[in-house]
Amino acid sequence: QDSSDDIEDVSLFDADDDVSRRSKKSRIRHPVASFFHLFFRVSAIIVYLLCELLTNSFIACMVTIILLLSCDFWAVKNVTGRLMVGLRWWNQVDDDGRSHWVFEARKVSAQGGKTSSEAESRIFWLGLITCPMIWVIFAFSALFSFKVKWLAVVVMGVVLQGANLYGYIRCKVGSRKNLTSMATSYLGKQFLRQ
C-alpha cells in the first residue's frame, strides 16, 4: 500500500529559493528529536573508535555499541523521521498473512505549507547519509586489518543504519519507483547537461 496521494514533497536538503521563507523555516522546531537523532549515531561511532583504548573487554564494547545502534534505529525510525521531515515507513501484515512495506510522506496541511524546517531537514539527512558511510569505511577497515571479531559489530552498524537510510529514501522518492532506474535517469540527465 502506498499513500502517494496528497503528499508533501520533502526535499533532501530543502533548497528553497525564497530567502524570507528560508529564514523563517531555518529554526529547529524539535530540538530534543534533533539531538537524539545525532546522539545515538555519533555515540556508537565514538565508542567504536575509543573502545580498545578505554577497555580490554570486547564483550562490553560490543554490547554498548549494539545497544546504541538499536536505540538509534528505533529513535530514527519511530520518532525523528516523523517529526523532523514528515516521513515514516513500516511493515504491515494483512489478514492473508502477506507482508507489505509501507513508505509514507506527511500529507499537505490545510494551509499548503510544510511543517518541517530546513535546519531539521539538513540535520536529518546529513546524519542519515553520513553515518552509514562511516560504518562502511569501518567495515573495510576491519576486513583489511583482519579484525574479524569487530567485523560483526561493524556489520550491525551498516545493517541497522543502512535499513533506515533505505527506508527513508524509499519514502522520499516514492515506493513505486525503481531506485535503480531513478539513479540511471538522474545520471543520464547530468551527463546530457554537461
UniProtKB/TrEMBL annotation:
<keyword id="KW-0472">Membrane</keyword>
<dbReference type="InterPro" id="IPR008564">
    <property type="entry name" value="TVP23-like"/>
</dbReference>
<protein>
    <recommendedName>
        <fullName>Golgi apparatus membrane protein TVP23 homolog</fullName>
    </recommendedName>
</protein>
<feature type="transmembrane region" description="Helical">
    <location>
        <begin position="31"/>
        <end position="50"/>
    </location>
</feature>
<dbReference type="GO" id="GO:0016192">
    <property type="term" value="P:vesicle-mediated transport"/>
</dbReference>
<keyword id="KW-1133">Transmembrane helix</keyword>
<keyword id="KW-0812">Transmembrane</keyword>
<feature type="transmembrane region" description="Helical">
    <location>
        <begin position="56"/>
        <end position="76"/>
    </location>
</feature>
<dbReference type="GO" id="GO:0009306">
    <property type="term" value="P:protein secretion"/>
</dbReference>
<comment type="similarity">
    <text>Belongs to the TVP23 family.</text>
</comment>
<dbReference type="GO" id="GO:0000139">
    <property type="term" value="C:Golgi membrane"/>
</dbReference>
<feature type="transmembrane region" description="Helical">
    <location>
        <begin position="150"/>
        <end position="169"/>
    </location>
</feature>
<feature type="transmembrane region" description="Helical">
    <location>
        <begin position="123"/>
        <end position="144"/>
    </location>
</feature>
<dbReference type="Pfam" id="PF05832">
    <property type="entry name" value="DUF846"/>
</dbReference>
